[in-house]
Amino acid sequence: MNNERFEWQTRCEFNAYCKHTLRNELINACKESKRRQQREVIFSDLAPHEERQLFTVDKYFANEEKDDAFRVGDLKITAKLLAEALRTLPDEKRKAVLLYYFVNKSDVEIAEELGIPRSTVQYRRTSSFEQLKRYLEERADEWDEW
Questions:
Q1: Among 67, 77, 79, 93, CA closest to 140
Q2: For position 43, what pLDDT does the model report?
Q3: Which residues form the RNA polymerase sigma factor 70 region 4 type domain (predicted)?
Q4: Closest to 145 in 3D by CA, of 54, 78, 47
Q5: Does residue 67 contact residue 75 with C-beta atoms inside 8 Å?
Q6: What's the rounded mean pLDDT across residues 15-21?
Q7: Which positions ≥6 away from 107 have C-beta within 8 Å?
Q8: Is the pLDDT of residue 98 over 60?
Q9: Which pairs with CB-CB distance under 8 Å and at least 24 residues apart come from 85-88?
């Protein structure tokens, strides 16, 4: 009988502990909600200069009539064409190219990040050039039509 009494007492203590913990969590959640409500601002209450701080606009392709293309021989290469060429690369090759040329990481750093040998990174980059070259040569003249 003593063992059953001990078990019952343990259950009651655990039950009280759980209820106490849940009550404290509810109190914390209510306080946090109240703090957030005090700091929140309704969009309609914002001044125009405050509204403009909430977003940014990417204007890179805004002026498409502007000729930002460069010519290689008789081929015209635009930023959109180059972006499309990069999108056609397989993911692993694209990552290697982007990390090397746009994030300025070395082959060793890229290899550590991707968990592959350095020679694989170098192979992926150099083989990507052939694919990019073929893609750009095939589509450089027809891109203007798009």
A1: 77
A2: 81
A3: 81-124
A4: 78
A5: no
A6: 95
A7: 100, 118, 121, 122, 125
A8: yes
A9: 85/132, 85/135, 85/136, 85/139, 86/132, 88/131, 88/135
Could you report the per-residue pLDDT of 111-141, keeping only the tens digit for each? Answer: 999 899 999 999 999 899 889 888 888 877 6
Burial call 45-64: b when 16+ CB within 10 Å, e when fewer: eeeeeeeeeeeeeeeeeeee
> What tokens appear for 110 in the block?
């890229």
The CA radius of gyration of the chain, in Å to the nearest whole number, is: 30
> Does 29 lie in the same domain as 74?
no
Measured in degrees and rounded to the nearest 5, phi and psi for residue 106 equal -80, 170
Q: Is residue 99 domain-resident?
A: yes
Q: What single DSSP character describes residue 62?
A: S
pLDDT band at 143 (very low <50, low <70, confident <90, very high): very low
- Which residue reads 């109190």 in tokens? 27
Q: Does 95 share its domain with 134? A: yes
Give the pLDDT band (50/70/90) at residue 145. very low
> Is 59 a domain residue?
no
**What is the domain extent for residue 106?**
70-145
